[in-house]
Amino acid sequence: MKLKIPTFAALLVMAVTGCITTNFNGDSTAALAFKSKELSPKGSGNGTLKLDGLFYEAAQGRVALPAELTSNATDVSAEKPFSAQTVMPDGRVDKLIVAPEGSSFSLQLSAEPSADIVKWGFAIDAHDDEYFTGLMERTVGGPQQASWASGIKPAMDLRGQKVDMILKPTTSVYAPFYISSRGYATFAKTDWPGKYDFCFSDKKRVKIEFEGPSLEMKFYTSQDPAALVKAHALDAGLPFLPPKSFYTPWRWRDEHTQRETYYDGTPVTGSFNSETKEDILMMNAYGIPCGVYWIDGPWGPEHQS
Fold it and tell me: Which is higher by pLDDT, 21 or 157?
């Protein structure tokens, strides 16, 4: 597949259209369709990203956002964002804002009052051949040992998995950002815990939910994965450039044993840190500069940091 980055002007040709869907209870619920040329692999016409199943959870349980909220979501462009609100039977005012930003869309969900709202969520349609990657440095969600279990099948594709967006020990580096092979990526602008369901409970949908009184999601569109990563980095914040010493070789030691002799049989005369001393001496002997010596947690007594 030939990938390219269109100009900013071309990316302004997009729209958000509202539609009405029916849930399992037969009620009309809110839905959105993001349209962008970047969602079309061949660059011919607009591709569509459909969202439905929008909801919030409050004291009375899960509440679906009504179709009235998105029924007029048409002809939205970079110059004309869409916003709407509706009054719920309990008097609560639900608000929805969609703001196109170049090749991206910002979705904001909120309500007043919001004191008892504990969660927001929605679903995105998924194609049969679509794959997803991101969120974490692990291969699969759950305990870290599952990522290197014998005979493991999953790799970079998160399809068919459920992932909790919350830090877990020890190999984590979680981030609420994933990329789809369809040409889009999402970024949850929140620090509340969340959950992702990649076609696990519904093979046709990616389900996303986050705790908190409101929710803002960013949707990036591009057929170039590097452009999606770049757009997210500019939103999340670029990393600081570390000092030059960080680019020298590092030496890491997980556990330490006090030896009686070094590797060549030379007696150890010190009363502690024989392996550390040997590491440094060997790097020096072979002309390897050591910029950082990393001592991990199991170093201490009884493997405690």
Answer: 157
